[in-house]
Amino acid sequence: MSSTEPTLRPSSARRSGSPRGWAGRVAKVLGPSLLLVVFVAVWQLISSNLSEKRKIILPAPGSVFRVGFWNSSSCKVENSGKVTCEHVRSDILHALLQTTKEAAVGLLVATVIGVLVAVFMSQARWVERALFPWAVALQTIPILALVPFIQIRYGYEFKSRVIVCVIIAVFPILTNTLFGLQSADDGHHDLFTLHKGGRIRRLWKLQFPGAMPAIFTGLRISAGLSVVGAIVGEYFFRRGDPGLGHLIEGYRRMQSKFDMPSLFATVIYTCLLGVAVFVIFSLVGNLATRRWYEPAGTTRD
Fold first, then answer.
1. Domains of the chain (ranges plus CATH)?
2. How many Å separate Cα 286 from the centre of its chain?
3. Residue 91, CB half-sphere, CA atoms under 13 Å: how many?
4. Alpha carbon of 120 to those of 174, 182, 215: distances in Å?
């Protein structure tokens, strides 16, 4: 066995069965879990020490859990003084499904647009100089300024919300893909030139494989932004099937009617959706690149 053989193995394989590797995995789960416990404990402590009037603004974690996750009834006081109760969890789950659809479609469209534009920009410097300033300008325009134009052209429903998702989520995919495509080693480019590799072959065999880590970085960022875009679109376009943004807006208007647990539960579901899509793309990215790519600064045995 040659002395150079261990260096040919992926470092992840060498660490996978080591105690240090298992300790790192436990730490990844234990650290966030402990912070969650501390956060809930502090939340409960603050809420329990508030007066009855202020508890309406900051409900206890138990009441939020019962309303949003245990399917307990949420009651609110109407203007007439009548108290009405309803099951909130079913409404939130239906809205969660609608928001997930909008975020998924928006992210898919943003990925296609971002990758295609990045490919064109990577193949010609003049294309990059012509398009990149407009991409930056689109990213900096407030969504509120674009709402009237989107509303007049596409209405209030699903398509308008998806457009908001695309506008918010496309820029990280474009910039990270462009960075990855332009980061191929000059020596590798010279090798393709030596073997008379064409532009398409160079793009497919050299630039795209090398750009995969950067592309998945952009996808992880844009996955969370697509959820934000869906919520923002629902907040502005209030017609059609209700999503989490509709519920947040509705419960915000009901602050004086003692429905804050429902608002907090909806916000928690929104956070969980964002974390879920981020974790999914992180896992997919790791599976796609773990055999040949390791981030800089990773500890080696």
1. 88-289 (1.10.3720.10)
2. 16
3. 21
4. 11, 12, 15
